[in-house]
Amino acid sequence: MQLINPVKSPSFFQKIQWVANPVRYMETAVKEYPDIFSARIIGFGGNLIFVNHPQALQEILTNDRKKFAAPGGVNKLLQPLLGDYSVVMLEGDRHKKRRQLVMPSFHGERMLNYGKLIRNITEKTISNLPHNQPFLARNAMQEISLQVIIEAVFGLHEGERCQQLKRGLTTMLDLFRSPLSSSFLFFPWLQKDLGAWSPWGKFVRDRSAIDRVIYKEIAERRSLPDPNRVDILSLLMSAQDEEGNPMTDQELRDELMTMLFAGHETTATAMAWALYWTHHHPEVRHKILQELDTLGESPDPMSIFRLPYLTAVCNETLRIHPVAMLTFPRVVREPVELLGHKLEPGTNIVGCMYLVHQREDLYPQPKQFKPERFLERQFSPYEFIPFGAGARRCIGDALAQFEMKLVLATTLSHYQLALADNQPETPQRRGITLAPARGVKMVITGERVRPESQLTMART
Ligand code: HEM
């Protein structure tokens, strides 16, 4: 079979490059082949087609399940973290049903309840940070997003079990913090448990510790069911398949781990980038504050969510750093033509949001942070695509965007912050995502007083 626009280096080197420096890998390949190219980065010699042309993406992602399937088996990379029964691994009808079950937890009325929670957690977390001493925004944001998702998934907001989950997840995911250590996900032969001091051995033990906490919670809920609980675990426990069977403990564990993992890592990174850009360009921060101040002393979360400039800043953050570089793979089901190339059944294909968001024809001067783009023009769901699209579109997109806006608004309106690092931040691999390489070092220089309150104080 003839390869479409193949990247020309041996597959092992391609894979190393892809793991070590994905941005350079993608930017080099796209210079040669602007819209579509074949990367040899899966297994040894396996091909993955990267697409960044909006119309082609629309065809691939809206055709899910017909010409292009969205199977779970190809997401094996995440199996050690999420297990075999996560929504990410399911396919076909089971996948669709699982999505339908959990989606309401991240939309509509449930979202309104998260508003107050997000603000309280943000205030508490930021107020615990020392003033005039550097801290890493990525870590602070992770603390917030982890607490929010634990509350959404288990309805737990404090106590020993909540602390165990927070500590356990943070420690376990630390393994994938750098490109080198992310190799454990990409090279399965590195996944060797050589005792508690070996990296994979430590990961396996950390994972077991989290599993114990999750299974304990499941057992308690089974013995003492509470029909009034509205958290995701309660929802999953009340679900039944066609034969009337409830989900097994293993299925529940895998889904809970998925929500915990997918629900906080990405959002924490996006919020850290948002803090970075709003302080790298003080005029952006100033404009956000001006807009926020029009809402009065304590605005309700939905009014904050609807603010146009704040929305543009969050969109531009997700545009320039889409966090997830790629959609999950789709697989060609029947012979199909895409951008003039013939694709055979069985071909693996991904939407590359990183490269879509870097297209000069859509986003002139793409390396520059310009929120105004989103005020001046509307982008289609295949031009601005941080959450993917179609059958596997992100389940938590609304929660993530709500959280980004509320955390940014709460932090900026109460505190004066500054970047504590003169070097620009750069994106670096963190597991399967891109995150700020140095974690965005910042410092709190004081509390912020709203201009109106300043005037009132001056008058009295
Ligand atoms: C800024 C934050 C986030 C980003 C950038 C992001 C991005 C993505 C992307 C790109 C996908 C794959 C879409 C596709 O293949 O078409 C995805 C899937 C998914 N996301 Fe998110 N996500 C974020 C936050 C969240 C949150 C808060 C949750 C909450 C639980 C979540 C849960 C999931 C799940 C469960 C899937 C798998 C869906 C499936 O397999 O059907 N994500 N996300």
UniProtKB/TrEMBL annotation:
Cofactor(s) required, per the database record: heme
Listed CDD domains: CYP110-like (cd11053)
InterPro entries on file: Cyt_P450, Cyt_P450_CS, Cyt_P450_E_grp-I, Cyt_P450_sf, Cytochrome_P450_monoxygenase
Keyword Heme (UniProt): yes
Family: Belongs to the cytochrome P450 family.
PANTHER family xref list: CYTOCHROME P450, CYTOCHROME P450 12A4, MITOCHONDRIAL-RELATED
This protein's name: Cytochrome P450
